[in-house]
Amino acid sequence: MKTAPFEEGIEPQPATASCQVEDFGIAPQNCLGGEPLSPCIIIIFGASGDLTFRKLIPALFRLHCNMGLPHPIRIVGCARTPMDDGEFRESLKTGVLAGGVHDVSCWDAFAACVRYRPLEYLDPGDYRLLARYLEELDEESGTQGNRIFYLAVPPALYETVSRCLGAAGLAQEGMDGKRWSRIVVEKPFGRDLESAAVLDRVLHENFLEHQVFRIDHYLAKETVQNVLMLRFANSIFEPVWNRQFIEKVKIIAAETLGVGKRAGYYEEAGVLRDMFQNHMMQLLSLTAMEPPSHFETELVRDEKSKVFRALRPFPVEQLYEFLVSGRYEAGIVDGARVPGYLEEPGVSSGSLTPTFASMKVFIDNWRWQGVPFYLTSGKRLAKKLTEIQIHFREVPHSIFRHVIGQRIHKNVLTLGIHPDEKISLVFQTKNPGATLRLRPVTMDFHYSQNYAGPLLDAYEKALIDCMRGDQMLFWRQDAVELTWSFLSPILERCETCTDRSRMIFPYEAGTWGPAEASRLEEG
Ligand code: BG6
User: Fold this and answer.
1) Could you tell me the strand order of the sheet in which 40-45 lies?
2) pLDDT, tens digit, 9 for 90 and up, residues 212-240
3) pTM as predicted
4) How would you label 330-357 residue by residue, b for 16+ Cβ within 10 Å and e otherwise?
């Protein structure tokens, strides 16, 4: 099997030097600390769906177990499926257990906060009834009129739900800032620049910008948040974080999962809309952005937008040199035989949807001029792996070359996001012994090292920030539009060119994607 295009250059490391975490006398922090959260009701539209079941409820439940939820809180599921509170709670319990949350001892107390309301998404009358119901719930439980409307529904329903909420008066906030109302939308935010702008206009018919939370769960991952800490809370990295020392940057989000039951959505999206417009672009901006003057929401988001603005327009005329797309075929993943994309339920036999892409992009500014950023993401690859690799340049002159006659491997700093939440640096040492030989070793910091508090998963963090009203880890609309401006010409070119089918290279499930991907680095 060929190696990952992104594993090139790193020898198997014969030695590992791990690092000690100094605690400097600081007591382990409880990551749920901070200001107490205001009581609220979280209303989840799409309550019978996969996202609710697999992510939202397990995240809320874990928060509950770690005393991270406000008191009181109510969680109201809304969907078309007729169900009563008891049936809804039972269905969620199965999801929570399947999600590997084993501390069920506090389930009953959590379940007591959960309600269910059947609702037809297109029926404004149902939203009026919901409004009345929420008021009664406020009265009964003391949730003080604060609401989060979480849209875990197909994106086609975002505009309708938002308008119906507005028409039912549910977007209104108290004049004194006490009674707040927030709407959370999941990506994709539109499917191109135009539809993203339309969606935004519709959301703003009823909600003000401070009420809109565009969620990208990657931003809320611990290790992703840590990129800025690493870069800007240490003085040793920033001086070398530029074109003078960095040869290339690789950002990888490889998955072993296939499209699963999401063909309806994925057929329309493909890997570029599903992973690149959002997660990959966020990882890119955190890696490349300038330091803001303060760690404040708008200042951080300003710097990210500047990166997107500096993206070199993609040379669509030379698509082959800058983008490789692929689609998985049957193969073996984690020891099990899996079908190809075209055999997945709901995928049309003539589908031209890519499940893999590798792209070379440049950022036209002083810091990054000429440094290629390789962004790679795909489904049904050999391993679930998300990481950012910073490849440093070779030493300018090797004093060892004539003695040991070998190439000196370059330093690589890896920011591991999954499965290893870590920072590791590959560097050269002398191989012990009489003969002069170099050997690359890694110095690893594992994120959970010497940390006893609960590690928040991305949805937990995103939900807490939404309850706090902190938008730092959420997309701002200008960034959404800038990334669409960058990607839309690529998508248009890919989706309209006559030799479309030839542009999607097949790869066997369980490998590292199409062999053609390696040519991006050769060019
Ligand atoms: C989602 C995509 O946003 O991210 C999925 O829609 C993808 O297709 C998922 O599987 C990956 O997230 P994570 O956190 O598992 O890397």
Assistant:
1) 114-118, 73-79, 40-45, 147-151, 181-186, 212-215, 474-475
2) 999 999 999 988 999 999 999 999 999 99
3) 0.91
4) bbebeeeebbbbbebeebeeebebbbbb
* Percent above pLDDT 70 for the chain: 92
For residue 4, the model assigns a pLDDT of: 52
Which ligand 1 atom sits closest to the C-alpha of 417? Answer: 16
147 by Cβ neighbours in 10 Å (0-12 / 13-18 / 19+) ranks as buried
Alpha carbon distance 177, 52 (integer Å): 29
Strand, helix or coil for residue 339: coil
Ligand 1 pocket: which of 51, 56, 217 to mutate (most atoms <8 Å of CB)?
A: 217
User: Hey, which residues are catalytic here?
Assistant: 279
Q: What would the pLDDT profile of 289-301 be if each residue is shown by its tens digit? A: 999 999 999 999 9
Rounded to an integer, what is the distance from CA 229 to the centroid of its chain?
Answer: 18
Give the distance (Å) from ligand 1 centre to CA of residue 485: 22
Measure the N-to-C terminal CA separation of the chain; round to a whole number of Å. 23
Q: How far apart (Å, rounded) are the C-alpha atoms in residues 126 and 442? A: 59
For 247, the 3-state DSSP assignment is strand
Q: Is the dihedral of CA 152, 153, 157, 163 positive or negative?
A: negative
Answer for the pair 388, 224: CB distance below 8 angstroms, yes or no.
Answer: no
